[in-house]
Amino acid sequence: MWGHRRDRSTWGAAGSRAGTWTPGVPKPREAPTLARVSEPRYAYLGPEATFSESAARQVADPDALVPYPTVPAALDAARGGEVDGAVVPVESSVEGSVNATLDELIRGEPLLITRELLLPIAMALLARPGTDLAAVRRIVTHPVAEAQCRDWVAAKLPGARVGVTTSTAAAAAAVANGESGPDGPYDAAIAAPVAADHYRLETLATGIGDNPDAVTRFVLVTPPAAPPPPTGADKTSLVAFIRDDHPGALLEILEQFATRGVNLTRIESRPTGNGMGRYCFAVDCEGHVADARVGEALMGLRRVCADVRFLGSYPRADGTTASVGRGTSNADFADAEAWLAHLRG
User: Fold this and answer.
1) For residues 150 and 108, what is the distance between their CA atoms, to the nearest angstrom?
2) Paired strand residues for 162
3) Which domains are seen in the chain, by residue range?
4) What is the pLDDT of residue 9?
5) Three-class SS string for 97-162?
6) pLDDT < 50 regions, the chain
7) What is each CA distance from 206 to 119, 125, 189, 203, 210, in whole angstroms?
8) Phi, psi (deg, nearest 5) at residue 97
9) Is-contact 239 106, C-beta < 8 A?
10) CA dist., res. 297 & res. 295, Å (int)
């Protein structure tokens, strides 16, 4: 799939003729100025012109983004200091967790989640300029995108054939380059909307996915440091490793949150990689590690678990404030601590 990365040397040759453009050659990015040299750079799961790049653009300008071929490669770039952080997918509202990301955060060298991003997955039908929707007979896309848009294609373009390729970005490049499938040249591609600008294609239709509410959750991770300050609308992520396999092991973990009024937004088991039947629990909960109830819950986990990996406290992308029940506010915990100190003299 890396054959479709932006080729700056090719653009230089094509761009030397003012006012001309070679189909299939992506638009050039503006050369960085001296003022931009020191700006943070961020890795993301490539290639370019995909939904991952769209998510990364919420963090930084395109010039500050660097595509990597896999999630582990993007995260390793952040660990090794090649970039200041990495934007990676972690959860899909349709397909669940992205295991490649979750397993790296569980087993790899520690990283800290500092921001959460939600990206609606709105598929688009893209074609070369001048193409009419009614004339589309051959479509190319990624297999997952084909499955997500199958009903729309059947209803709007019943006579069209759909071919598949390595990514939605590769599909857009194939259309821009006039590439052919088994039945002839491709007329259109199903891809991320950002690919239209990248490959100089026209958008024939948007929102063509069969699930209009599809959303993918991305996270920005950086090398370990102090978490961002609490905002009142935060989320905390962690991994709890049970001490041994015994009845009630999961209940012990859940009780640490329940007794302190901490609401969980996600919990799932993942293999530790240390043997058959050995699992840990990846947890997202409402609140910030600076909140007394969350801090107390983490201390409780530390007591009953073999290990606890803190993945970060960060602002929620949807801005939802944490629900704080009676007796679980910071003031309630402070009052109880003062009362106990008084008893102890």
Assistant:
1) 37
2) 139
3) 40-77+84-121+214-225 (3.40.190.10), 124-206 (3.40.190.10), 226-337 (3.30.70.260)
4) 29
5) ECHHHHHHHHHCCCCEEEEEEEEECCCEEEECCCCCHHHCCEEEECHHHHHHCHHHHHHHCCCCEE
6) 1-29, 31-36
7) 15, 6, 12, 7, 12
8) -70, 150
9) yes
10) 5
Specify the residue for token string 């929102």: 207
* Tokens matching residue 48: 């370019």
To the nearest 10 degrees (0 to 180), the angle between helices 99-107 and 71-79 is 30
Q: CB count, 10 Å around CB of 265?
A: 14
Main-chain phi, psi angles of 56, to 5 degrees: -65, -30
Q: Which residues contact 304 (CB under 8 A, 6 or more apart)?
A: 243, 252, 253, 256
How far, in Å, CA of 217 to CA of 118, rounded? 5
Q: What sections of 16-114 are H helices per DSSP?
A: 51-56, 71-79, 99-107
pLDDT for res 21:
38
User: Interior CA angle at 74 toward 70 and 76, to 5°?
Assistant: 115
Distance of CA 326 to the CA centre of its chain: 35
Residue 186: both structure tokens together = 């491709």
In this prediction the pTM is 0.79
Look at residue 247 and give its three-state secondary structure.
coil
